[in-house]
Amino acid sequence: MRPMAESGGVREVKSAGRTVQLLELLAARGDQPARLRELAEQLGVPRSSMYALLQTLIDRGWVRTDVTGSLYGIGIRALLTGTSYLDSDPRVRAARPYLDEASDALGETIHFARLDDGDVVYLATRESHEYLRPFSRVGRRLPAYVGALGKALLAERPDDELPLPEGPLEPLTPRTHRDRASLAADLARTRERGYAVDREEGVTGIVGFGFALRYDTPAVDAISCSVPTARLTEGREERIVAVMREIREKIEAVVPRAGGAATQWR
């Protein structure tokens, strides 16, 4: 959850910032609803103020509550807004046919993701016909240091400018990087080979290959292919890398670049 701050010399509107913080908090809880007391304590506001804010958002569909009125979760308006983001993004639209092409060629799970502060957010997914990953969903957020997508994007940046959390790196599996030194060594190898490899760092039993899309400098978008370790042979790995390199080139050739006619977002 992002702290409130000043932007462009204009001080943030406190009520608007609090609303966004609340929605982000509810969204991060997934299928775990929250109680009024929890929300008030986590955001550091009086219960009366939190209750009034919740009721306003319930009336507008951004928050939902259970039949007892004591549990709160993210509302359907958040979904509609998120869908609008994907539909209006020219880069996601341009990449979709090539994600389909990669999926057809490899039969594995293909992802398109974007760097957001220190996380990567999944914006498009093509599932393997052979298996379903339990967490392969649009909107999923992962720390960038964890998997192939994030490491591909971190490798596009100097080591002293990486958007990493304070303190030790929290592991998701026994193979996740736990310190900056081991991550830096991995990123150096990523720069040398031109793509990132995640060997069970994000999900046990899954290997990922991540490729930064360099239509921005530094890159903010990346694509990846994920495959179960049981199906990964040396020949299969070479095939995946060859196909994904070709798909990267095709996407970079058609995606609108900064300075073009399309609206440039920040």
Uncertain stretches: none
Radius of gyration from the alpha-carbon trace, in angstroms? 20 Å
- Can you write the helix and strand succession as a string? HEHHEEHHEEEHHEEEH
Oligomer: single chain
Helix content: 40-55%
In percent, how much strand structure appears in the residues? 15-25%
Shape: globular
How are strands sequenced across the largest beta sheet?
6-5-4-9-8-7
Number of helical segments with 4 or more residues? 8
Strand runs, count: 9
Provide mean pLDDT, rounded: 88
State the major sheet: 6 strands, antiparallel
Q: Quick gist of this model?
A:
This protein is α+β, with helices and mostly antiparallel strands and 266 residues long.
Description:
With 266 residues, the chain is α+β, with helices and mostly antiparallel strands. Helix content is 41%, strand content 18%. It has 8 helices and 9 strands. A hairpin with a 7-residue loop joins strand 8 (206-213) and strand 9 (221-228). It is globular, with a radius of gyration of 20 Å.
